[in-house]
Amino acid sequence: MRGWMLIAILSLGAYLSWQRFTHREPPPAPSLAGVYADVQIYTTSTCGYCKAAKAYMDERGIEYLEKNVEVDLESRQEMHERGGRGVPFLVVYGENMKGFDVPRFERIRWENR
């Protein structure tokens, strides 16, 4: 009986070890750098101003492409190349906007309808 118990324990240990070594991490999320939309917003996960800007656009049904520079290094580089140093940084119909300025945002949108 003890022999079978020992075999069962060793088998379980071998199985769990095998699972740990054969487990693969999922591939990284594809980069959004270079992807274009009429409204793009560069964000981080903890930015309150970013959340407010996204909420403003969500409430009004404004489509946008979010690029989280915290997890997407290519998007971070893209933002820096456009002159962005902090978030939120928006590109609205090709015009850069540092911070979210509602009147300016709406003016740019209106001009590009």
Q: What is the percent of helical residues?
A: 40-55%
Biggest β-sheet: count, sense, barrel? Answer: 4 strands, mixed
What would you say the CATH architecture of one domain is? 3-Layer(aba) Sandwich
Strand arrangement, largest sheet? 2-1-3-4
**Topology-level CATH name of one domain:** Glutaredoxin
- Given the C-alpha coordinates, what overall shape results? elongated
Radius of gyration: 24 Å
The number of helices is 4
**End-to-end separation:** 80 Å
Structural class by sheet pairing and helices: alpha+beta
Question: CATH first level of one domain: which class?
Answer: Alpha Beta
Number of strands: 4
CATH homology-level superfamily of one domain? Glutaredoxin
Give start-end ranges of low-pLDDT stretches: none
The helix-strand sequence is HEHEHEEH
Strand content: 15-25%
pLDDT average, as an integer?
Answer: 86
Characterize the structure shown.
The chain has a domain at 39-111: Glutaredoxin, CATH 3.40.30. With 113 residues, it is of the alpha+beta class. The mean pLDDT is 86. The N and C termini lie far apart (80 Å). It has helices at residues 2-22, 48-59, 73-81, 102-111, and strands at 39-43, 65-68, 89-92, 95-98. It contains four helices and four strands. The chain has a four-stranded mixed beta sheet, with helices on both faces.
